[in-house]
Fold this protein.
Amino acid sequence: MRFTKAHATGNDFVLIADPQAQHPLDAEFTAAVCDRHFGIGADGLIRAVPAQRSEDGRTALTEAGLTSTEEAPLWFMDYRNADGSIAEMCGNGVRAFAQFLRAEGLAELTEGTLPVLTRAGLKTVRASEEGYAVGMGVWSFIDPELASQRASDSLVQAAGLEDPRPALSISMGNPHTVVALPDSDALQALQLHQAPTVDPTPPHGTNVEFVVPADPLVEDGVGRVTMRVHERGVGETLSCGTGACAAAAAVRVWAADQGVDTWRLNVPGGDVTVRFHARADGAEEVELSGPTVQVYRGELMAE
Ligand SMILES: N[C@@H](CCC[C@H](N)C(=O)O)C(=O)O
């Protein structure tokens, strides 16, 4: 089985093309491939499969009210975390996925964009100045009632944190819980090889982002935030695209500054940009942009 190793600001992935849907993934295979000692090593495994040829792809098509044909296949991003669990969405992964489809000659940009079907709906990827950008859809509070005071809906504790801190949970198709810290010393003191605890515990788990808003928060019209993340199903990663979007949304809420639409997130693996576009109904669309790099191609010897 041929594969490509890629990363987006250090969030790394193994990508495989499965045009005939002959290689359905399972948890054991995924965990073995992502193992950094006994496998290739990655934060996630991504399979590219024509949507109509995979069960999850067909479900996603139905949910999105879309069709996909042999002549015009819509590619489905079958995303798995390093521990083998399934995730609805991956913001860095979907950007690496578009680059992979193009490099494999499986898809092209049409009028500058490439649609990708995910478990969290249809996403549109375009080439951007930084590499690839993806329209992530609308962000939302996970618990609108608890979050209605627009401050916090849970408490998070983590190794290296003195006391539990209030957090705000946001959905980007997948779940995120964002915690603000006072300064970069507090951020560096965190030991994120251990999963933080979130109270109340979200039913499907959550990715936890720790953020330090810059001081001043906004420079040249751009909001700036430093972030570390513990990803559900992985551990600490060098970047998380959906996490960056959730973190920017939370900081924007806390700052009560809906006027700043562009945010630069500094993560251990680099920088990504998050942009908000208000819709007529008041909801806000989010776009994530950043670099994606193909590192090498290889052939998997043992299954
Ligand atoms: N790194 C990703 C998110 C991957 C999925 C996540 N671990 C989850 O379980 O929700 C990103 O760039 O968004």
Remarks:
- The CA atoms of residues 20 and 213 lie 46 Å apart.
